[in-house]
Amino acid sequence: MIPTLTILFFAMTALLVVSIGRCGRVRVVGGLPPGFRVITADLGRDTRMDSRGALLLRDNEWGITGKVDLLLRDVASRAAIPVEYKPAWQEFEPGRARPSHILQLAAALVLCQGDSRVGQSPPEGWIRYIDRRGTVVPGGEVHIPNTPEIRERVFAIVQRMRRALVTGEELHRDHRSVAKCRRCSVRNACDESVVA
Questions:
Q1: Which terminus of the chain is less hemmed in, N or C, by CB atoms within 10 Å?
Q2: CA angle 84, 86, 32 (to 5 degrees)
Q3: 45, 100, 108, 137 alpha-carbon torsion, rounded to 10°
């Protein structure tokens, strides 16, 4: 069995630190939407975005940190909008987002509110699904409203991980994705990997 702390580290990485499935490994060629400017970007080196240095966001109340692929400022309303880029999977349905991607974006929404450098609760966040060339696929921009329910999902996971640290409860893999396991930083130590 994997030690509980290793599993907790993996779970935080996968769900809250927003590092699994990073588009920083994928070329992003789309430009900024009109009326927005970049606050921070973590899109990797091969990008045509107006990229600034990546800002590590912190929410001290909940004890989470993470980087957002792109954090935009709406010039007119001054609202911050977190954006996550994801590869469009084979069965991608226009206008629909995967639950794990929504949860990752929910963590970004919490971080924007909790970090004093952003200091606001964004009205929404975006998930942009891109093809192998790095362009957003048709119907690939999904806007997720920032609701109390979506933030509560993040808080529930954080509370479960904290409880597991105290009780010694083991947390287990919650997916069957070969791609996720291949990219996982603790795959070699994991006896639950779906990679042969």
A1: C
A2: 50
A3: 50
